[in-house]
């Protein structure tokens, strides 16, 4: 499949996809052993990219940058897309797990706090009997040292996962994938953040109607106020202001790769 067009959202190229299209692109890439990383991106990731040019370039160099939040979907529809819909990290993870039962894909989980990756593995293997989760790793809260990096490389060579899942939160997981894609013997890397905690059963997900209304942030803020209040109270208003300026033509952002044209 050709790479999907991208919607320019404040200079970040959001892939013009939905869940079915995302899975089709992932299936083709794994079948053809085409290496790449997938960033799952909403208001937080786009906002962080405004002050971090390197992070913006990481998003724009991805295999896919999915419309994780409803504001990304709305921006895509305003740009004329007829197909874009939310590709939410936790939903994408389950869809790929289900598909892998038929395709024989192998998975590795990297991230989360102590015990989270192991709990995630147990839960998903119970949900999908026959699922091949070949390994897990809980990394330190700092960059890997030389010994840790060498051990991870050796582990991945031995286990040969098709899919390497990263749960480190934004922007740490995006930087990790960009740095390690060429170093690790895997095909696709997925940065899915909170999906680790959700599917490990440690943090509840917002009700579906709140997700579709673009209010998942309010539910998560209610559940984890100490951790998330700075993120949402800073990023959400800034995103709305910047999006208004872009949509009204008062501010222009550099083109993104494969940008969708009207």
Looking at this protein, list some descriptive labels.
262 residues, alpha/beta, Rossmann fold, six-stranded parallel β-sheet, two-stranded antiparallel sheet, 12 helices, 8 strands, 49% helix
How is this structure best described in words?
By secondary structure, this protein is of the alpha/beta class. The chain has a single domain, classed as 3-Layer(aba) Sandwich (Rossmann fold), CATH 3.40.50. The chain contains 12 helices and 8 strands. The strands form 2 sheets. A 6-stranded parallel beta sheet has the order 4-3-8-7-5-6, with helices on both faces. Strand 1 and strand 2 form a beta hairpin. Helix 1 (19-32) packs across helix 5 (89-103) and helix 11 packs antiparallel against helix 12 (225-247). The protein is globular. The two termini are 22 Å apart. The model has no long low-confidence stretch (mean pLDDT 94).
Question: How would you sum up this structure in a few lines?
Answer:
This protein is of the alpha/beta class. It has 12 helices and 8 strands.
Radius of gyration: 18 Å
How is the quaternary structure best described? single chain
Averaged pLDDT: 94
* Helix/strand order: EEHEHHEHHEHEHEHEHHHH
User: What's the story with the biggest beta sheet?
Assistant: 6 strands, parallel
End-to-end gap: 22 Å
Structural class of the secondary elements?
alpha/beta
Count of DSSP H/I helices: 12
- The helix content is 40-55%
β-strand percent reads 5-15%
